[in-house]
Design goal:
Strand content: 15-25%
Number of helices: 10
Helix content: 25-40%
CATH topology: Rossmann fold
CATH class: Alpha Beta
Largest sheet: 7 strands, mixed
Structural class: alpha/beta
Order of helices and strands: EEHEHEHEHHHHEHEHH
CATH superfamily: Alpha/Beta hydrolase fold, catalytic domain
Number of strands: 7
Strand order of the largest sheet: 1-3-2-4-5-6-7
Number of domains: 1
Radius of gyration: 17 Å
Length: 253
Amino acid sequence: MEIRLAGSGPIRVIALHGWMATSSSWDDVVQWLDPSVYTVGLFDARGYGARLRERGEYSISEYADDVRVAADQLGWDRFDLLGHSMGGKAAMLAFSRLRTRVERLVGVAPVPPISLPFDKATRELFEGSISDPALRAMLVRNDTAERYGNGVTGVLAASSLRASHPSAAHAYLASWCDNDFSAEMRSANRPVLFAVGAQDRAITKDLLTDACLPFFPGSRIETIEASSHFALSEAPMTLADTIDRFLRRPVRE
């Protein structure tokens, strides 16, 4: 597996990207994490980015299991996890499956571990946006609360379409939308933080309160004010500071 490393510090972190992005979506955030404190491992999900042609089942379960593959490849016995959107759901599952190895978890606008009851029109919008640039732009416009003009929206939509293979995008969509991993959620009393954009129309604070917090006792939510769903691009310095303050705290054994 191709894994990019940023920094050389003692706090080891693996970051997972979302459905409309690649691992490079974390770059703007990682640049604000002190490289003498953090070592961040970044890899693409199968069917995305550097692994565009790599075959797989393209599921959240597989994505979560690739965290163990990456950690073993890096020789990391203990590490922290970051996950955005779809990657947040995979990160929660990996956190639960690897609870003796993952020390802390930060989910950024994470898809909850439950199944999502999309109505027919919403599901068709997501499915159609995999190949239709106009529908992808509509999806981006909704996820960003119509904060940006056609130029910025169009660039984000176009880059997101290039991020993944269509067959992978279809399979991952079905997985993060339909799969319910609530029975597997176990926190092992490890620290968990969820960050949500104040203007995110897709993953809201209320949704996280109802569908994430109950699975992780002691977890909490922080709001990123100047952001919608794409805090990694919209507010990278603020998000990096939120992550840094959380991950610097010692873990109680």
